[in-house]
Amino acid sequence: MSPGQWQCGLCSTQFSRAEHLRRHLRSHENKRPYECSLCQRSFTRRDAKTRHEKTCKATMQSPISAIQPLAPFFGTTNPPHGLEDDFLMDMSMPYPSDFSALDWLYSTSTHMSSDNIITADRLDFLAHFTSENGMGTFLAPETLGERQKLILKHEHDSRTAGDGRELPITSSISVAAHQTIEPAMLHITSEDLDPLTARTYEILHHFRNIITTKASATVVKLDWTPSIESSVRSFFSPVNINRYLGYFWSLWYPNCPFVHRASFDPQTAPPALLCVMVLIGACLSPHGEDAATARMWLNVVEELAFSDSSFWEERDGSVGGGKTAVLDQYVGRKKKRLECVQTAYLVCSLQKREGDEEARTRVRRYRHATMVMLARDIGLATASHRTLSMDKPSETWWQQFAVEEGLIRTITYVFLFDVALTIFHNSPPRMVVSELKMEMACPEACFQAESAEECFRLLKEWETTTFWRKRLSIISVLKTICQTELTSSAVDKYSRMGSLNLFTAVQTLHSLTFHLRNSIIFESTLLPLKTGLENWRRIWNQREAEDKYVPDSPDQIWKKVGFISYSPEFWHLARIIVERIEGDSHDDCDGEADNSSHEEKKVAAAGKSQARERERYDHTDMTDVNGLIMEYRRLSLGAV
C-alpha cells in the first residue's frame, strides 16, 4: 500500500505500515499486557518493557512521577494512559525519553481528537524550511507552485487577449515622474517618458555610484563595465519593475504584510525599498532565469540600503505650521524612518535566504543588529494608534493609520526575525520579551482596505474589542495566557486577536525557551511556559482564518495568510524543546538517586557530553534544529 493508507477508525491518524496501526489501536483499547517486575509499570509491547527494565529505578516513589510535570499542559494530575517508550524504535538516537510525553500525545485521541492543530504534528513545513534555502521556502512547495501556476496562466491569458498587460496586480502608478535623477542621463523626450523610466535611471545612477566608489568595507565585488550598465538597465526596466512588483505582492507579501499596499507608489518609494521589493519578486518569479539574474544584485542593494543617509539622520522634534501641517510633518517624518526599517528587514530576509554564506553570516551578526537599533531608535512603545482620531475618515486620517499600523507590524516583524535567528541558528536574542510594548496589529482587512471609508468602517469593528480599548500589547497578552488555564470565554475572546498576533505570541514563547535552556532550570520555572503553550493551542483552534473567503485568483492571493499559517508547527517545536529542557533538568537532579552501574553511568555521561559538545551557538546552517525535527519525526511511529 502507499504511505498513509493505514488509518485509525477512531481518531483518523494515518500510518505507513499495518503493524504501526495495530500498535496504535492498542492505545485506544488500553491493553497493556507486559508489566515491569520491579515497578509494576505496564506496557503494550514486550521490547518497550525490556528497555524500561534496564534503567528502571525501583526506589521511585511512584511509577508515574516522571509524567507529573505534564499536568500544566493537560489541566490534570491524573496519569495519561499510554505514556511509554513504545515508539522509541532506534536506540542509537540521543535522549529518546525526552519525547515520551509527545509520543503519547500523538498515539491517543483522548485529549486532542477535536484539535485541528494535530494536523501539523509531522512538522513537514519546518523540515523543508530548515533543509533548503531560497525565498520560496516561506511557503510549502505545493502552495508556492500553485500560486506560480496561477500567475503563469494569467500572464498567458493576458498575452492571448492582446491587452499588453503582464499582471494587473501591481500598485497603481501616478502620472508624475520622480525628479531625483540627473537630467543628463535621460536621452529621451518627455513625451516618450514612461512613468517608471525615471526610476530605472535613478537606480542605474545609484548602482554606478556604489560600484565605482567602493568603500574599504564594501560588500560589493562587481566592477562597473558597459555590460554591467546594460544589465542594470535591462533588469530594472519599467516593464520588469512592474512585473517583479506583481510577483512581490502575490508571492511574498503574504509572508510579511507590513507595507501598506494601497498607498505604496513605485514612483515615490525610496530607491532602496523599491529595489529590494523588485529583487524579492524576481527571486520568486515563475520564470527561473529571473531569480538567477536577481542574485547578481543582492550585495549592491544591501550596500545601497545600509548606506542610505536616512538610516543615520537624527530625529528632529520641531515642527511648525497649523494643525494639519503639524500632522503632515509628523506622519511624513515617521514614514521616512519606518521605510528605513522596512528596507533593512527585507534586505536581511533576502540575503538570509538567497545570499551566499558570507552574506548570511553578515546579516546574522551585523545587519540584524543595525535593524534592531533602528527599531529601538524609533521607539517600540511609539508603535501605537493612541493619537489616531476615530471621528471620521479622511485621506489624512488614512495616511496616519497606514503609517502607525505599518510601524506596529514592522517592529513586530523585527522581533520575529530576531526569534527566527534564535530558533534556527541558536543565536542569543538581541531583543527581550519585555520590550514588546507596541500595540497588537489590527485585523488584516483593515490594513488591506482600498479606501479610507472602508478602512474606517472595519476599524470601527476592531474598536469594540478589548485589544483596542485596553491598548493591549503582545507582552500583556502573554502574561495573561501564561498565568493560568483560560476559561472558555477568555479563549473565545483571545481567538479574535488575529493570526499575526497569535504567531508572535508563540514565537515569544520560543524566545523564552532559549533563556531557560541556558540557565539553571527548576521544574517550577517551566510551569508558566507550559500553561502558555496549552492556552495558545486552545486559542489557535478557536480562531477563524482571515483568508477563509479569499479566492485563489491572481489579483486576490496577496490577501492570503502566508508563513504564519504554519504557526502550529512552531507550537509543536516549542513543546519538543520544553520536553528536552525538562528531560535535561530531571537527568541533572536524578544523579544522587541513580542506581545505575558505574559502567552505565559512564555511558550516559559520555552521551550527555557529546550532546553538549555538538550544541553550537550562532551558526550559519540550520542542521541542528533540522536534526531535532527529523529525530522527532522518526519517533512519531511513521504517522503521515
Quick summary of this structure?
With 640 residues, the chain is mostly helical.
What separation lies between the terminal Cα atoms? 13 Å
Low-pLDDT sequence parts: 58-114, 164-191, 316-320, 599-613
Order of helices and strands: EEHEEHHHHHHHHHHHHHHHHHHHHHHHH
**Which bin fits the share of residues in helices?**
40-55%
Q: What is the arithmetic mean of pLDDT?
A: 79
| % residues in beta strands | under 5%
The profile of the biggest β sheet is: 2 strands, antiparallel
Kindly report the spatial arrangement of strands forming the biggest sheet. Answer: 1-2
Shape: globular
Indicate the structural class: mainly alpha
Q: Give Rg in angstroms.
A: 27 Å
Count of DSSP strands: 4
- Total helices: the number is 25
Protein name: C2H2-type domain-containing protein
Region (Disordered): 587-616
Main location: nucleus
Keywords: Metal-binding, Nucleus, Repeat, Zinc, Zinc-finger
